[in-house]
């Protein structure tokens, strides 16, 4: 049974229009006081978005390396009129947290990391669906699913890895999380293919080769 939102301490973090004060409190605690455990970190969600403008405070971050990461993320978020994604990760053995920052909405061409792979695989699933509905463009990536178990398993894995999106969309509209061209021009497909090719997941390389095979037959 879901808790009432009023009783959930995480609710305050999700509104990008209202979370400035609590986000700054979190950042001061983590980046300046170097707190990596405690109630503040326990209470905030594993992921939420914040407006990049709220981080324009030179005293918010102390270490030069942290400033470099934050400034780069803020600059890229501002350039795409987007948001800074804040992810909370935990070391269960040592019982401490750390934060990682990512630019949102995710766009093809961004590095695929643990913090945006759900968005990436969501786009892969969208491309697969596009080829099914428009086989005359690139070929149909689902055409051999029933006859080839490996293809079926890869498509199943893609859908599995994109499954966190519905959870995030309870808090954010899709356009805040992902930006893409649903007509799938060649430039977008090339970016998707490159991300598959350089992935550290061996099955992604196999899927890349399968996509190349299907597109090659179409040509």
Q: How would you sum up this structure, described in words?
A:
The chain has 219 residues and is mainly α. It folds into 2 domains: 5-104, no CATH class; 117-218, no CATH class. The protein has 11 helices and 3 strands. Strands 1-2-3 form a 3-stranded antiparallel beta sheet. A hairpin with a 4-residue loop joins β2 and β3 (96-104). α5 (117-133) crosses α7 (149-161) and α10 packs antiparallel against α11. The radius of gyration is 20 Å and the shape is elongated.
Features:
219 residues; mainly alpha; 2 domains; 50% helix
In short:
The chain has 219 residues and is mainly alpha-helical. The protein contains 11 helices and 3 strands; from the N terminus they run H-H-H-E-H-E-E-H-H-H-H-H-H-H.
The chain-level structural class is mainly alpha
Q: What are the low-pLDDT stretches, counting only 5+ consecutive residues below 50?
A: 1-6
The number of domains: 2
**Overall pLDDT:** 90
What can be said about the biggest beta sheet? 3 strands, antiparallel
In helices, the fraction of residues equals 40-55%
Distance between the termini: 52 Å
Silhouette: elongated
Topology overview:
Blueprint: H1 11-14, H2 20-32, H3 39-43, E1 47-50, H4 64-79, E2 83-91, E3 96-104, H5 117-133, H6 135-138, H7 149-161, H8 165-168, H9 174-177, H10 186-198, H11 202-218
Antiparallel strand pairs: 1-2, 2-3
